[in-house]
Design a protein that fits this description.
CATH class of chain B: Alpha Beta
Oligomer: heterotrimer
Chains: A alpha/beta (480), B alpha/beta (309), C alpha/beta (319)
Number of helices of chain C: 13
Strand content of chain C: 5-15%
Structural class of chain B: alpha/beta
Number of strands of chain B: 10
Number of strands of chain C: 8
CATH architecture of chain C: Alpha-Beta Barrel
Distance between the termini of chain B: 106 Å
Mean pLDDT of chain B: 94
CATH architecture of chain B: 3-Layer(aba) Sandwich
Helix content of chain C: 40-55%
Number of domains of chain C: 1
Largest sheet of chain C: 8 strands, parallel
Radius of gyration of chain B: 23 Å
Low-confidence stretches of chain C: 1-6
Structural class of chain C: alpha/beta
Shape of chain B: globular
Number of helices of chain B: 11
Low-confidence stretches of chain B: none
Largest sheet of chain B: 5 strands, parallel
Strand order of the largest sheet of chain B: 7-6-5-8-9
CATH superfamily of chain C: Aldolase class I
Helix content of chain B: 40-55%
Radius of gyration of chain C: 19 Å
Strand order of the largest sheet of chain C: 7-6-5-4-3-2-1-8
């Protein structure tokens, strides 16, 4: 997509040799890899090539039963361990992840389709950081602000999405183990591999059997897990529709629930913004991980007085994005995770056009195999357009305009979601005033899509409830 | 002096017409319905009806809807008020209650079938509860928020913010202390509330509304409805403009039904739990209706550095 | 290439007075330091391999302003430098020449003779380099001296004291005067000494100030202070020349100077050029490296690419 320039970057692929993917994988239950009770398997493919990477056992209700039983059995000992011992296990895991980070980055890129630049520089460092952070909490829970000697809940059933497979695993497992819970985790059906490699890391770390159980599978396995009567805690990251279904499932039980769901983040650019950095922030906001990010800045709200200047800069910048082989170290935009997701993005983009928004993409050649979608910009979008309201979960930016800060805030908040927002202005007081009025759980001022283990993450309204990360993230796994 | 009657007839007292409290006003139910409220004596449980106390408004779905509108309208101002201001308003409620202590002792005794001494203990505890939460308004953010030491050139701050409009099913048994214990934490942090009073003992709640109206609590911040809990709660649990629900006053079956309805817009839901309202509360009823907002600000160095090779 | 006279472009009225100039410069979009540095660092992760690397190394060599600016400079030292500029790698005559040699004014004549006929330009620092603390007449005399001796390019320093005290029109007028002293034969590079301007906002303002005054190149630094060229300040200046051309049609070059010592660093800068200003600037008419030791590292890397073996310092010349 970068225009034919004198300075053509030669291919710079990261070596696949650092990762050894077995032809088949089992479920990880009670410290062993086992076949599914009904013998079912499914294939996981590389979304950038459609190559089959491996065949994975597919968990069903009976396997959920086995895994919950194993986790329950392990809970007594694990929760009774001194916090300092649990901490050392988690520190071990953090260190092994660091050691194996290149391998895991390549694996994640293969299974998910996101650029190696991101798995190497964002996902993996954050994964290791998350375990390192929560490791330190394990023996300090008395000081976490939840009273003396706070107790774990028991068995945590966790269901995670495909957009940050290993990072979402870390967000779920690290605080659960630090607080003394045991877990049964279901990775997404399109990205099971890194979770299975994590099982091997648990083995290397000497983690007691049954403390972590991994059940690759589909929605039915997730539903069985959250509905299981011996699960004490349910944590889910994914779509708002499924989140609501889970909330109904756990209604009337004592299960503690945290949900991290969809978003339609507003990225608000005022006329006094640092324009070049704002352009970068807009790009990061919507094209990081091909826009398959719940906190993506998918609505650009730009002040009318700088609209033309900003859009010119943005389009010029989009023309330099490099789409292609996710393993190439110079790739900025990788593949869409699945054919299903690609179809959804395509349909919503077509609806945007049908509803009269103006569509633009840079000149861009898409690879012939795999699932790809060109970075796309819609202008002349209003709050009434579907593409301004529905979460697209793809590299599609809807551009809206505003005239005053009041209008910007009103439009930003005019959504059922409330996960993220961005503010771009050089005026400090305006940052604080606007940030205080936005109904969103994470707000980036003059930056976007920054994450940190110490920083609580989670939404308002239909973006879910509960926080992951930081001291706040402990609460979801403690009986408080 | 002039001639007197030998014996004075007991003076005919003036009954109070109990009304709903919505948006700072005291309307009757739009439905025009009322229901009979009687004393709860220890005997009443076994022998049926107690003594007639009043006809309380039997609030309708539409009353619930009006209350949500009023609560939403009040949210901006109340959540935007300074924490110090909210603290003083809550303290003012305690001051006003102290002055009407005798009235509430009588009402609570009648409502809950308590002896005068026990009812007095309940009212004292309720007044003290307002004082406890009055002191929390400007401290909770310091206890639950703070700066997060992120690994990068950013200042990262988490602060609690009120969830919004909270539907509160007040406890059925503890009609006054329980009520205060669930309402005060909701509004202390800046939420606004639609409260369903104890179904059988709504009068202390309706009288509390009169205190709130004269305590600088802005209209709409607390709205009090009396009637059938299940009838009023259902539309509130399903209401898309209600952000959270406290199920303290729901039985097991109703709580489950309401929690399912509440999932439609992912209301924050506080399930019923066994509570001794005489115990000093923790902060969990405050944090149950708080959102954590985390804001990132770049810091960087003072000048252009040479460090980015 | 656009060669519009500086006063003819759309922004000529902003220099009408001190206050219009100040309003204009302070009205430029601000720079968020963290975001700018993050973008520079992110471009620094580009992986340039094989054919792209070979292209980049040769391009970088051709962009070097091979520099000696020492009190101890002698005609002998300058002649050796000139020879190196003309034949950077005596063992491989396919190696491109450097863009220029850069010397003090009194060495211009020697340098001119050393590179005669090669196409290598002679650049001379002037205007009381590096501090710039002299009367305007003295600075102009310095420039005229260098130009008279045959300098093809003049690297002037701005009056940072005036800039930092907000006397923008004074800085502007001085650049205009120096530009005039350069005549038609010498291109003017304007050095901001970014390390002394300290903030990115100042660097952006200085860039526009320099371009408004007719700079042919804007240049980061003298190489004589603690912080010289960085990816971030060079990225910022590349954004400035890009935006200036978009607004006025006038193309201005960029020269980071000081502190760039390795091939890896140089390639990072070329990536910045490629992805910020664009390929129009990937030419030594529009982009230069002010450097001395960089050249040898480029040559060693060039040998490595040609032979497959790692080279060593004994296989490149010490001049």
């Amino acid at each position: 997509m970068a225009s034919a320039s004198a300075f053509e970057y030669a291919p710079a692929p990261e070596s696949r040799a650092v990762v050894d993917i077995a032809p088949s994988y089992g479920l990880f239950i009670d410290g062993e890899f086992v076949e599914a009770a009904d013998g079912k398997v499914f294939k996981t493919v590389s979304p950038s090539t459609e190559e089959v990477l491996s065949e994975v056992a597919q968990a069903g209700a009976e396997d959920v039963e086995r895994a919950v039983k194993a986790a329950r059995k392990a809970f007594a000992k694990w929760s009774a361990l001194p916090g300092s011992e649990r901490a050392k296990y988690l520190f071990r895991i953090a260190r092994i992840i660091q050691e194996r980070s290149r391998e895991l980055a390549v694996l994640e890129t293969l299974d998910n389709g996101k650029p190696i630049k991101e798995t190497r520089d964002a996902d993996l460092p954050l994964v290791a950081g998350h375990f390192f952070y929560y490791a330190g909490w394990a023996d300090k829970l008395d000081h976490a602000g939840f009273g003396a000697n706070p107790k774990p809940l028991g068995v945590a059933g966790q269901v995670i999405p495909w957009n940050f497979p290993l990072l979402m695993l870390a967000w779920k497992i690290a605080p659960a183990l630090a607080t003394g819970n045991t877990v049964v985790l279901k990775p997404a059906e399109t990205t099971p591999l890194s979770a299975l490699f994590f099982a091997d890391i648990c083995r290397q770390a000497g983690l007691p059997k049954g403390v972590v159980n991994i059940l690759p599978g589909y929605g039915d396995a997730g539903a069985a897990l959250v509905a299981h009567p011996d699960v004490n805690k349910v944590a889910f990251t994914g779509s708002t529709a499924v989140g609501k279904e889970i909330a109904r499932t756990v209604a009337g039980t004592r299960k503690k629930l945290t949900l991290e769901l969809g978003g339609k983040g507003a990225n608000i650019v005022f006329d006094d913004a640092p324009i070049d950095q704002a352009v970068e922030g807009i790009v990061t906001g919507i094209f990081f991980n091909q826009g398959q990010v719940c906190c993506a800045g998918s609505r650009l709200l730009v002040q009318e007085s700088v609209q033309d200047e900003l859009l010119d800069s943005l389009k010029r910048r989009l023309s330099t994005l490099r789409l292609g082989d996710p393993l190439d170290k110079n790739t900025d935009i990788g593949a869409i995770n699945s054919a299903e997701q690609l179809a959804r993005i395509t349909a919503l983009a077509e609806q945007g056009e049908a509803e009269g928004a103006e569509r633009w993409s840079p000149a861009c050649e898409l690879p012939s195999s795999g699932y790809w979608f060109a970075p796309t910009l819609f202008t002349n979008v209003t709050q009434a357009h579907t593409i301004a309201r529905d979460e697209i979960f793809g590299p599609v930016l809807s551009v809206l305009t505003f005239r005053t800060p009041d209008e910007a805030v009103a439009k930003a908040n005019n959504t059922q979601y409330g996960l993220s927002a961005g503010i771009w202005t050089e005026k400090g007081s305006r940052i604080l005033a606007v940030a205080s009025k936005l109904r969103a759980g994470v707000i980036w001022s003059n930056t976007f899509n920054k994450f940190d283990p110490t920083s609580p993450f989670g939404g308002y309204k239909e973006s879910g409830f509960g926080r992951e990360g930081g001291r706040h993230g402990l609460e979801a796994y403690l009986d408080v | 002096m002039s001639e007197k009657t030998e014996k004075t007839e007991p003076r005919l007292s003036v009954f109070k017409t109990y009304k709903l409290y919505v948006g700072g006003k005291f309307p009757r139910s739009e439905s025009g319905r009322v229901y009979e409220v009687t004393t709860q004596t220890s005997a009443a449980g076994a022998a049926g009806k107690g003594k007639w106390l009043a006809n309380a408004p039997l609030a309708s779905r539409k009353d619930a809807r009006d209350a949500v509108v009023a609560a939403r309208k009040a949210f901006g101002g109340w959540s935007g008020a300074t924490a110090y201001n909210r603290g003083q308003v809550l303290y003012r409620v305690a001051e006003m209650l102290e002055g009407r202590r005798e009235q509430f002792v009588r009402e609570v005794a009648d409502a809950e079938g308590l002896s005068k001494a026990k009812a007095a203990a309940v009212v004292d505890a309720a007044i003290d509860r307002w004082v406890w939460y009055a002191g929390w308004t400007d401290k909770i953010a310091q206890v639950t928020g703070g700066a997060n030491p992120v690994a990068g050139p950013f200042f990262n701050l988490s602060s609690p913010e009120p969830t919004g409009v909270v539907a509160v099913l007040a406890p059925q048994k503890s009609s006054f202390l329980g009520l205060v214990s669930v309402v005060a934490p909701v509004i202390a942090t800046g939420n606004t509330a639609v409260v369903i009073a104890s179904e059988k003992s709504p009068l202390p709640a309706l009288s509390l509304a009169e205190v709130l109206a004269t305590s600088d609590v802005p209209g709409g911040v607390v709205n009090v409805l009396s009637g059938r809990t299940a009838e009023i709660a259902a539309p509130l649990a399903a209401h898309q403009d209600v952000n959270a629900i406290d199920l303290a006053g729901a039985d097991e079956a109703l709580a489950k039904e309401l929690e399912i309805a509440a999932a439609d817009n992912l209301k924050r839901t506080l399930r019923p739990q066994a509570v001794d309202y005489f115990d000093t509360p923790g902060i969990d009823r405050l944090t149950a209706f708080l959102e954590t907002k985390t804001v990132w600000h770049p810091t960087g160095s003072l000048g252009a550095s040479g460090s980015s090779y | 290439m656009p060669t519009t006279a500086p006063t003819a472009h759309a922004l000529s009225d902003v220099t009408a007075s001190d206050s219009t100039l100040r309003r204009f410069l302070h009205g430029l979009p601000g720079v968020d330091a963290v975001g700018l540095e993050a973008r520079a660092a992110s471009l620094g992760t580009r992986s340039i391999k094989t054919t792209a690397k070979a292209y980049a190394i040769d391009l970088a060599i051709s962009m070097v302003d091979l520099t000696t600016l020492e009190g101890a400079d002698t005609p002998g030292k300058v002649r050796a430098l000139g020879a190196k500029a003309v034949h950077p790698d005596p063992t491989d005559r396919t190696t491109p020449t450097t863009a220029a040699v850069c010397v003090y004014p009194d060495m211009v004549a020697v340098a001119k003779e050393a590179v005669a006929g090669s196409g290598v330009q002679v650049a001379s620092v002037a205007t009381a380099f590096p501090a710039g603390r002299a009367a305007l007449d003295v600075k102009l005399a310095d420039v005229r001296d260098a130009v008279a001796a045959g300098a093809d390019e003049i690297d002037m320093v701005i009056d940072r004291g005036a800039f930092l005290s907000g006397k923008y029109l004074k800085v502007y007028d001085e650049i205009v005067a120096v530009k005039e002293a350069c005549g038609t034969s010498a291109r003017l590079k304007v050095i901001f000494e970014t390390g002394e301007l300290s903030t990115y906002d100042n660097i952006r303002r200085a860039s526009w100030l320099g371009m408004l005054a007719g700079a042919d190149f804007i240049k980061t630094s003298t190489g004589k202070v603690a912080v010289n060229a960085t990816p971030a300040n060079t990225l910022l200046m590349l954004q400035a020349v890009r935006d200036f051309r978009a607004q006025t049609g006038v193309q201005v070059g960029v020269k980071p100077a000081g502190g760039i010592r390795t091939t890896k660093d140089a390639i990072k800068f070329l990536v910045l050029v490629n992805e910020t200003a664009g390929e129009d600037w990937l030419d030594n008419h529009w982009f230069r490296f002010g450097a001395s030791s960089l050249l040898n590292d480029l040559l060693m890397q060039r040998q490595k690419l040609a032979t497959g073996r790692y080279s060593g310092p004994d296989y490149v010349t010490v001049d």
